[in-house]
Amino acid sequence: MIQIQDHKLVTDVNQFTFDATENHSGPFKDGLPDTIVIHYTAGASYGSSVNWLKDKRAKASAHLVVGRKGEVVQLVPFDTVA
Questions:
Q1: Of 25, 42, 43, 47, which cross-links 81 as Cys (Cβ 3.0–4.6 Å)?
Q2: Strands ordered across the beta sheet of 16-18
Q3: Residue 75 in contact with residue 4, Cβ under 8 Å?
Q4: Residue-range domain boundaries for the chain
Q5: Going residue by residue through the chain (82 aa), what tens digit of pLDDT does each one get?
Q6: From CA 26, how far away is CA 43, in angstroms rounded?
Q7: Is residue 50 within 8 Å of residue 60, measured between CB atoms?
């Protein structure tokens, strides 16, 4: 079962990882987000997409990165602007 605890994805089978990035803008001002936006990164791989979104030069990030094999990493808590 997937749950959200402290604004992070958790599951009893450790399916997800949390790998914090500094590329964020702080907490949402009016509560939690109400919209989901899905982007295609066009990265060479899951790992390269994660590494780029954690790099300060990117000046961008995402809450989650989902790989082609279903792997998931969370970069930013859900109460924070990515």
A1: 25
A2: 16-18, 72-74, 64-66
A3: no
A4: 2-74
A5: 889 999 999 888 777 899 999 999 988 887 777 788 899 988 899 999 999 999 999 999 999 999 998 899 999 999 999 9
A6: 26
A7: no
